[in-house]
Amino acid sequence: MTETTATASSSVISTTLSSSRSSQERWKEFLKAWWKENWAVLVLNFGSICTLVGFTRSDVLELRGLSVTGNICFISYQLVQTPVRWVPIGYSALFACVNLFKIGQIMNERVGTVVFKSQEEQDTYERHFQPHGVTPKQFQYISEKATIAKVSKGRPLMLQINQPIPKQVCLVVEGRTMAQNPLGRRLTAVSTAHQEEKKGGDSGAWIGDMAFLEWLHWIENTDKRKRQKRRLSRNVEALEPKQDNDNKDVEGEEYSNRNALYSIITKTDCTVLCWSYEDMAALYHKSPDLRAALTRSMTAALVGKVLNFAISRSNVGLDQYSFMWRQLFQSSPPTTPVAPQQEDGDVLKDEEAQ
Known about the structure:
Elements: H1 2-54, H2 60-79, H3 86-111, H4 119-129, H5 136-145, E1 147-151, E2 168-174, E3 176-180, E4 186-193, E5 206-207, H6 209-220, H7 222-239, E6 263-266, E7 270-276, H8 277-284, H9 288-312, H10 318-328, H11 348-353
Helix pairs in contact: 1-2, 2-3
């Protein structure tokens, strides 16, 4: 009796094990068949999701990388279809190649290595560009467009009072300069001395940066303004056909820089890097990364000028500040002149004595 029961139990167990193995094998065969039939669709859906996610990214490198992934997935899907459609495959391959080429350019600009020509060039990069996110490769592009000028002591440097600002951007990389207003007072915020550290940084090293940014904004919006003026002119002519509109020639519109409010004079022999507006604009249009890095460098100098000016005037009394602001917003000139307070070393003759 016991032997018969044991035999029956073992037969039941073996039957159960064999049925479980057969069910597992059936599941494996089913999954293999399903994957073989649908893997291409899964790959296509994955590529479509990558392309969709790429459009939500703000970094152009991520956008292009996800677009390449989507192109490769689309090509893989098309290659297993019957018949094979070579035209969409060719276009997707072309898109992927263009994106890969641009990815290579971006990576070279961001992480490319550069051998500096001299220690002075490396010091210029580390002092004026590296803190603002300019990569060594971007600095190479910037330095290739620059013109190196040597200015002797006591010579005017670019800006002169009541003279139009030259269409140049300059960076003083060596030496000391002194900015002075029409009264002959030294303007610390727009002067430079590399051995001195100011709270707002060496803001006076950049010269003509604000004028260039104004010019660039004007140039980039010129076409839009011209289209608007042409449209307005056509509307006026349609309403008043006899009106003479010869004085509305927007094609001849030109930009003119404002006059300088102060002069800059070299206190020692100086080395200056100079860029024309056109060369600097070409750098701005080279890549979005380079444009952002250069803008950070220049705007940091502008913010530094404001900060250094506020610090240099911190010893001016509240009453004098209030009087200055009142006179600034009055239409008539002040009846009582305000005698400026002398700051440490801020009078031109004191500077020359030093």
